[in-house]
């Protein structure tokens, strides 16, 4: 653990710079932390269903009988016990036990053989093994097992991640694809470690084929062709190869530099400053620490309805969804612009909000601190999510509302450009004001040539590929919605966090 290295005084608040990171070389601590993450997530989910009725309760005779007993009961102590009984029934009659636990059991059985071959006697001496194990525990902690079948992508993904396919298995898969292909003009062959795919109009060679979940990659390309092959290659990367091969990571230096510049800005610091009333660790001024945070972000690309990003209370590691969307008639520049726009919002939410609070507690400054509670009578109260309102506090949402005047659930092209322009973050007041009116501005008024050249172009975003007149009406088959008064709009397909996230207990870090 690193010690406190610097103290400074700004606007009457002591801001202490330091970093404390988990020592991942310690095998026992490493495994302990990951299992804590899994147990905490299950605990969060149970608490969520304890406090929220679900569709299965409507038909539960046992629940209605117990509820009648509760209504008729006059003794306060007995009523408390009745409430506990009702909560237990809500958990037992929820999709958590009826669907989630059932499907996770099915999943575990399907990957058990390969999991044991990889980890049964594994001493976790290799970083790759530690990373796979961490990603797997994160997957088990947060993936929504709503449905599960033998053909499920996640079963294929983890089986091939735990144990690479043999040459015979790869050959059998390719031969089967060629025989039962969905496209008569689709043919594939394996040469050494490369997959060569030939269609009537195109040919592509995919090298390092063991980096991918081959069974799913073949299925995707056979069904969709080669026109979006980069998307399907990103989608089917095994978790242990995302760090080097995911499109974000291929431009990691640019992506990281842009995000650090934004997080280190006056606007973000002013918003984050409102989370605290006393001394705190100023992580946003510590560029070296922010660089380490971004180096340690773990991406995932499997489909999930649970969350776009989350920071672990136990490891201080951030996990983020790392796949852009493909849509008819949308250029790659548009897809990447929306991805990086939402990704930057996620990083602001996670790092200046949740991670910021967690770092204070991890270092036990002033015996820890909590997210500030918001006043139900305040003007901004209605802007918070229902889950945050239930808890009465939510640091990430507080930061978003301070910056944007709302929670960001959708973005226009111009809003995404505005968010990726570091020069817009000079101070909190002007940022919020200008964000609200940026749709009335031209591209040149929103984004500077310097930012285009230094950041956006290297990330694959070319302003000349964006719609020339974004205020035109767009058909729903071109974009998510049809609007005549705004730019093309993209939506967050998932919540920033799953509902259970907001039912976390206030835990003190166990040292």
List the helices and strands and how they pair.
Blueprint: E1 6-10, E2 13-17, H1 27-50, H2 61-72, H3 76-92, H4 95-119, H5 127-142, H6 153-162, H7 167-179, E3 187-191, E4 194-198, E5 203-206, H8 214-224, H9 229-235, H10 242-245, H11 247-250, H12 252-263, H13 266-273, E6 280-281, H14 287-295, E7 298-300, E8 309-311, E9 318-321, H15 332-363, H16 386-391, H17 395-404, E10 410-412, H18 413-419, H19 428-437, H20 443-446, H21 449-456, E11 489-491
Helix pairs in contact: 1-3, 1-5, 2-3, 4-6, 7-8, 12-14, 12-15, 13-15, 13-17, 13-19, 15-17, 15-18
Structure overview:
With 511 residues, this protein is mostly helical. The chain has three domains: 27-149, no CATH class; 157-243, no CATH class; 245-503, no CATH class. Helices cover 49% and strands 8% of the residues. It has 21 helices and eleven strands. The strands form four sheets. The protein has a three-stranded mixed sheet. Strands 3-4-5 form a three-stranded antiparallel sheet, covered by helices on one side. A hairpin with a 4-residue loop joins strand 4 (194-198) and strand 5. The chain is globular. It starts with 5 loop residues before the first strand and ends in a 20-residue tail after the last strand. The relative contact order is 0.10. The model is unreliable at 1-14, 16-22, 472-487 and 505-511 (pLDDT under 50).
